[in-house]
Amino acid sequence: MLAFKAEEQSQLQIVEREEIEDEEDLFEAIDKLTAHGINAGDVKKLQDAGIYTCNGLMMHTKKNLTGIKGLSEAKVDKICEAVEKIVNFGYMTGSDALLKRKSVVRITTGSQALDELLGGGIETSAITEAFGEFRSGKTQLAHTLCVSTQLPTNMKGGNGKVAYIDTEGTFRPDRIIPIAERFGMDAGAVLDNIIYARAYTYEHQYNLLLGLAAKMAEEPFRLLIVDSVIALFRVDFTGRGELADRQQKLAQMLSRLIKIAEEFNVAVYMTNQVIADPGGGVFISDPKKPAGGHVLAHAATIRLMFRKGKGEQRVCKVFDAPNLPEAEQVFQITPGGIADAKD
After folding, report:
1. Which SMART domains does the annotation name (predicted)?
2. Integer Cα distance of 316 and 210 in angstroms
3. Which of 17, 90, 255, 265 is the most buried (most CB within 10 A)?
4. What SS3 class is residue 51?
5. pLDDT digits 0-9 by tens, 42-94
């Protein structure tokens, strides 16, 4: 159990954007284009299209940018030239890449064993996907991360706010209260630092992601949760005839998630459903695989497989990760969120 004294409570308040010195290097505001000869009206058009940083602009194709009302091909070329002067999007040395990785923050899951499995916790600038059957602990981890992200970095937190996109109606603000109490935090302040949206269609889900850029450019966000990423796609697209279209739209949304993660140094935690795999063969004891196919598999940086254990115990297995060995760890769901399993 983590308990803090009253005077330490003040440390748990979210640090304002102006006070974060290290953040300044992460992204350049789109307003800086005006100093490079770009019309303020054109900058406003970019902001209206959900582009708030120079880094974010470089993540769009020229075809996309000319699709913005009022931006001609000549204007787009001029904007891209100006952005290249502000942001270096070319090659860097391995040493520089290593230095850049130092800005990655690892957020505690609430369980020390699970943190060790993940190399320190859920990391920023990456997409962590958790898939498993219902009641396997995916949403419980999401609720715990809503609180732990707001802890100071010296307490394995992210010292930032949380955005939660809910496609299945499973977010429970009352669940946050006992978790906040376990971490010794003020539940009211914790809830105020979570922005929540309920998505009803895949288009609504995508538009909510586009609207996030404005908020993340102004305030210190550290975590974006999408619970679950695939649910609305499985509802809005049916049958094999629409499969190609579904995968294309899913790829676009996942591309947006990757860009948000890297543009704002945010941890993206998304949950995924499983589908029965009849072709799994008789030798596989549990023939289930994550939904979304190869498109989703390639988009996720770290894939975690959750399954039920004894009683309140759950098992998390590293299914795929670029820097983690394949291993598994047992954790427990408690009233105060995710915690280490008791023997």
Report:
1. AAA
2. 31
3. 265
4. coil
5. 888 898 888 888 888 888 888 889 888 888 899 899 998 888 888 887 888 99
